[in-house]
Automatic annotation (TrEMBL):
Keywords: DNA-binding. It holds the Pfam family HTH_3. CDD domains: HTH_XRE. SMART domains: HTH_XRE. InterPro entries: Cro/C1-type_HTH, Desulfoferrodoxin_Fe-bd_dom_sf, Lambda_DNA-bd_dom_sf. The lineage of its organism: Bacteria, Bacillati, Actinomycetota, Coriobacteriia, Eggerthellales. Residues 10-64 form the HTH cro/C1-type domain. This is XRE family transcriptional regulator.
């Protein structure tokens, strides 16, 4: 950790939020001298303050400590680079269209590695009126089931969460030239193209 880099970042984030040192200090229940000391690189915030400082400044704790935000290049909102994440602890599902550092339940998440669909992970997509009816012939037991099915085009994604002991089926709006994803809790993420 570099006190000076961390201090520069704290000052920058504070100013971006149009906050005074006193406002940051009041939010954290410390003195404004402590905030001034951090910003000058003469010390670092106590570990017990990092979560609060992260919330006040709108940056993750790791970035504050490293003194660097590591911003991504602008992607123009293209969904072709979509990454899907699933927390193994609580089942939370997150998406990003660029590289991201996401965490859940206190752990950093890695994007799910996409595999080609085969066997019980192949989706059956049937057009019914203005919708797609999607189903999988897959076990839906508590420890082994389809967690979600998603349909992505260049500009949007529709995701349907699934639960054990329900059927692995759902209806989606009609979205031509899409990529389909199915996430198995045991075997990972599978995809295939649909014209």
């Amino acid at each position: 950790m570099n006190n000076e880099k961390t201090g520069i970042l704290i000052r920058r984030l504070r100013r971006e939020r149009n906050m005074t040192q006193k406002q940051v200090a009041d939010a954290l229940h410390v003195s404004d001298r402590a905030v001034s000391k951090w910003e000058r690189g003469c010390g670092l915030p106590d570990v017990s303050l990092l979560r609060g400082l992260s919330a006040v400044l709108g940056a993750d704790m790791q970035s504050i400590l490293s003194g660097d935000l590591n911003q991504n290049d602008t992607d123009g909102g293209n969904m072709k680079r979509i990454k899907l994440y699933r927390c193994a602890s609580c089942g939370n599902i997150l998406t990003s269209t660029s590289d991201a550092e996401l965490s859940c339940c206190g752990r950093l998440l890695e994007s799910l590695e996409v595999q080609s669909a085969a066997g019980e992970h192949v989706l059956s997509v049937e057009e019914i009126e203005d919708e797609y009816y999607v189903q999988l012939d897959h076990p839906m037991e508590k420890g082994h089931h389809i967690a979600f099915v998603a349909c992505a085009t260049d500009e949007r994604i529709v995701l349907v969460r699934m639960y054990p002991e329900q059927g692995a089926q759902a209806r989606f709006p009609r979205m031509p030239r899409s990529t389909w994803y199915a996430c198995c809790t045991e075997h990972g993420l599978f995809s295939f193209q649909h014209i």
